[in-house]
Amino acid sequence: MRAVLIAVLLVVVGFVILAVGYAAEQASLRAEAQKARTISQAFATTLKGQLVAAIKADGHTSAIAVCQQIAPQISAQYSADGLHIGRTALKLRNPANAPDEWERGVLESFQAALDKGTDIKTLERYAFFGDEAGGKTFRYMKAIPVGQPCLACHGANIASDVRAVLAARYPGDKAVDFALGDLRGAFSVQKAMQANP
Ligand code: HEC
After folding, report:
1. Ligand 1 touching residue 153 (CB < 6 A)
2. What is the number of structural domains in the chain?
3. Which atom of ligand 1 sits closest to the CA of residue 60?
4. What's the mean per-residue pLDDT of the chain?
5. 137 - beta bridge partners?
6. Which of 139, 140, 152, 147 is nearest to 183 (CA)?
7. Could you tell me the residue range of the domain that residue 154 belongs to?
8. Hey, whose CA ends up nearest to atom 37 of ligand 1?
9. What predicted TM-score, i.e. pTM, was given to this entire model?
């Protein structure tokens, strides 16, 4: 009888430990997601601001260079403490921004959700990924919608001078013919977490 009681107690304690561990993991995941959300928002606002300012100052053909150089700069500015933020998409302008396997799957699921009528502003995904060495990586993606200022360089009616510069710089450019509200791509955040001891 006593042995049974002890066994039951051990099982209960085991479950409690698991549940506490799970709750802590979920809380840490939500905290990382909140940080990644804030950084993605800041990245989007900064890039859009600089892009619109450059277009206003020098026109779209000059702004192409801004987009090319400023995006990586902003990306570097917000990447710190083991965190990296970048942009990726299914239809690419610069092949260097190609998605990896996980990113491709998430982008495809964003597109499918959008096709079913989900609000693009709500499309995000995050998770922890473990590696064999016991380390953990946090990953986060947030959908980027096509807004009005994007159409001049990613839309269906791109001015011929802009088109010419794009064609010269990005020979295999697939990031055209987008409409307002389409899924342009996503911000992608990766952060190496402290390895579990
Ligand atoms: C002045 C032209 C221009 C405008 C306006 C513009 N882009 Fe781009 N976009 C580019 C260029 C050039 C690249 C390639 C940058 C590079 O070389 O990494 C690019 C790349 C991207 C990428 C990275 C994926 C890829 O295809 O390489 C995303 C995402 C993106 N743009 C979204 C947007 C959004 C959203 C807007 C509107 C807020 C926008 N762009 C407005 C020119 C523009």
Report:
1. yes
2. 1
3. 1
4. 91
5. 129, 192
6. 147
7. 2-193
8. 150
9. 0.90
